[in-house]
Design brief:
With 89 residues, the protein is mainly alpha-helical. 70% of the residues lie in helices and 0% in strands.
Length: 89
């Protein structure tokens, strides 16, 4: 699953992104990847990735390679993913 890489960097307000278009795009991505079951279980998956030590370590590596991510905490990424999920559902 590469969902976190797709979502990182999306920081939006109501004025910037049409939520219906975002919802359609996310659904189309899950359909294209044949992973609609993952979309149906998104809350459980977010809880899992929040605690995943491998992903946390990968985020630290990503931060080291990409200066724009240096000051973005993994917890904040998860918080933004939850926020996006809540906004479109």
């Amino acid at each position: 699953m590469d969902m976190d890489a797709d979502i990182v960097g999306i920081n939006f307000t109501q004025e910037e992104i049409n939520k219906e278009i975002l919802k359609q795009a996310i659904k189309a991505t899950f359909e294209q990847r044949n992973s609609m079951e993952d979309l149906e279980n998104i809350d459980k998956i977010i809880n899992t990735i929040e605690k995943d030590k491998t992903l946390i370590h990968s985020w630290k590596d990503y931060q080291a390679k990409h200066l724009y991510a240096k000051n973005i905490k993994y917890d904040d990424v998860i918080k933004d993913i939850r926020s996006i999920n809540n906004e479109i559902n």
